[in-house]
Amino acid sequence: MTPLLEARRLVRAFGTRQAVNDVSFGIAAGEALALFGPNGAGKTTLLRLLAGLLKPNSGSAAIAGAALPAPHARARVGLISHRTMLYDTLTARENVRFAAQLHGVPDAESVTQHALEQLRVADRADVPVRALSRGLQQRVAIARAIVHGPDVLLADEPYTGLDEQGASALTGLLLERRSAGAALVVVTHALSEGLAVASHAAVMRAGSFVRHEPTQGLDVARYAAEYRELFA
Ligand SMILES: Nc1ncnc2c1ncn2[C@@H]1O[C@H](COP(=O)(O)OP(=O)(O)OP(=O)(O)O)[C@@H](O)[C@H]1O
C-alpha cells in the first residue's frame, strides 16, 4: 500500500551543513509520527521539505503518490508552526476564514466557526489577534492550519505556549485527525506528549533518523532514559 506521506532519501544542505541527510519513511493514513531530537537536528528543515516549502538537494517527498511541491499535493498539507504568522490586526475569525477562503473551502464561515470551537477560542474570535495572549494566538494558528481539513498535518512544537486547556484541545484534535485518516508528523521536545498521540516515534540527530519504531508497547520512562543516553 502507498503510504499517505512518504519521504524517499531526502537530503537538504545549507552551505556545507547537512540539515537533513538521507531520511526515508512512510506514514499511512491514520498514523502519526512523533519526531524528537535536539536543537539543530534537522526537524524543522524536514517538516519544511514535507510541506513543499523547501526543495531537497536530492530525494523526494510525496503525498498519496503525488510528488511535492506540486500545488495539488501542497494543498493537502496543514502546517502548524511555533511561529504563529497571524495577521495581528485581523481578528481570529478573519485570520482563519481568510485561510479557508484561500483553500477554496465551501461554506468557509461555518467551517471557520467549527475550527475555532474545536480549539476552544470561539469566544475570543472577534477581537484582533494582537489583543490575545500568546497561548490563544497559538490556538488560532492551529485552527487556521486545520481549517481546510488537510490529510497531512505537520506540527512543529505545536504545544509551545499552550496552557493546559489549549494542550488538551490540541491533543484531542490530533487524535481526531488521525481517526479521520490523516497522516501526522509531530515535532516536540516533550517525549510523553509526542508518544501519547503517535503510532510511531523517531529520533533525529545531525540530519538522520537514529531511531524509528512503532510506539505500541514502548515504555515512556524507558524511552526517555534511552533518549537521554543517546545524547549523553
Ligand atoms: N535557512 C537556513 N539557512 C542556513 N542554515 C539553516 C537554515 N535552516 C536551518 N539551518 C541549519 O540546519 C540545521 C538544522 O536546523 P533545523 O532548524 O532544521 O533543526 P531543528 O531540529 O528543527 O532545531 P530546533 O529544535 O532548534 O528548531 C541547523 O544547523 C541550522 O542552523
UniProtKB/TrEMBL annotation:
Domain ABC transporter stretches: 5-231
Domain of life: Bacteria
One GO MF term: transmembrane transporter activity
Keywords associated with the record: ATP-binding, Cytochrome c-type biogenesis, Nucleotide-binding, Transport
One Gene Ontology term from the biological process aspect of the record: cytochrome complex assembly
Record InterPro entries: AAA+_ATPase, ABC_transporter-like_ATP-bd, ABC_transptr_haem_export_CcmA, P-loop_NTPase
Record keyword S-adenosyl-L-methionine present: no
Record's keyword annotation contains Protein transport: no
SMART domains: AAA (SM00382)
Family statement drawn from the similarity comment of this UniProt entry: Belongs to the ABC transporter superfamily.
NCBIfam families with a match to the protein in the record: ccmA
PANTHER family linked to this entry: ABC TRANSPORTER RELATED, ABC TRANSPORTER, ATP-BINDING PROTEIN
Protein name: Heme ABC exporter ATP-binding protein CcmA
Organism whose genome encodes this protein: Pseudogemmatithrix spongiicola
Lineage: Bacteria, Pseudomonadati, Gemmatimonadota, Gemmatimonadia, Gemmatimonadales
Gene: ccmA
